[in-house]
Design a protein that fits this description.
The protein is of the alpha+beta class and about 200 residues long. Helices cover about 20% and strands about 30% of the residues. It contains four helices and ten strands; from the N terminus they run H-E-E-E-E-H-E-E-E-H-E-E-H-E.
């Protein structure tokens, strides 16, 4: 394999340009545009367990898990799409469909998310315990890295990248994170909420 030696006179300028570009990328990123899902109702996904209670009717009440195809089966109602919807939306659909079989005033339904399995993320690279993680509630970047045991001795901890699916299928957004400054309590706008499917890369 051939190698090309860089001119000593050119190297410092090239290095400065690379560093400046990296700083500009991180400094200009608008972290405020990233969503905070904690302010809205949880979107249900495959694997989540739901408790569906029909008022005064134990036979129609059920405890069910969202199938891989995103649906659940409800007694008398049949299949109901659950993935990508909220508990309130599922409740409303079940109530409407049950009203065809009973008086609307008795078709009172509650839907509770009893167990969350669809919220997962990956922490990869130079951390103590890289891998896929699940949580029952949303976590931030700092919390996610802590779950993976923090960066190890080989890590360049101040150059984390959060990879996030966005827009059209296959497009991945790269979000720069200054990890060490976050640990010091600085630039906390970068401590964004990790979304399902995110991958935090620790180089």
């Amino acid at each position: 394999m051939s190698t090309e030696k860089m001119s000593p006179r050119l190297f410092p300028w090239t290095l400065l340009l690379v560093l400046a570009a990296a700083c500009a990328t991180q400094g200009n990123y608008d972290y405020a545009r990233e969503p905070d899902p904690r302010s809205v109702e949880f979107p249900i996904g495959p694997g989540d367990r739901l408790q569906i209670n029909v008022w005064r009717d134990q036979e129609l009440s059920t405890d069910t898990r969202v199938r891989p195809d995103g649906a659940i089966t409800v007694p008398l109602v049949g299949d109901v799409r659950a993935a990508g919807r909220t508990a309130s939306q599922i409740r409303d659909e079940i109530q409407i469909k049950l009203a065809a079989f009973m008086k609307s005033e008795t078709a009172k339904v509650t839907v509770i998310v009893a167990e969350v399995r669809s919220y997962y993320f990956t922490v990869s690279g130079n951390v103590e315990r890289p891998g896929l993680y699940r949580a029952s509630s949303y976590v931030t970047v700092l919390e996610a890295v802590a779950m993976a045991g923090e960066p190890n001795r080989y890590a360049s901890a101040d150059r984390l990248t959060l990879l996030r699916a966005a827009g059209k299928a296959g497009f991945v957004k790269r979000i720069p994170i200054a990890y060490e400054t976050l640990r010091k309590g600085e630039n906390m706008e970068q401590n964004i909420v990790v979304l399902a499917g995110d991958n935090i890369v620790v180089p």
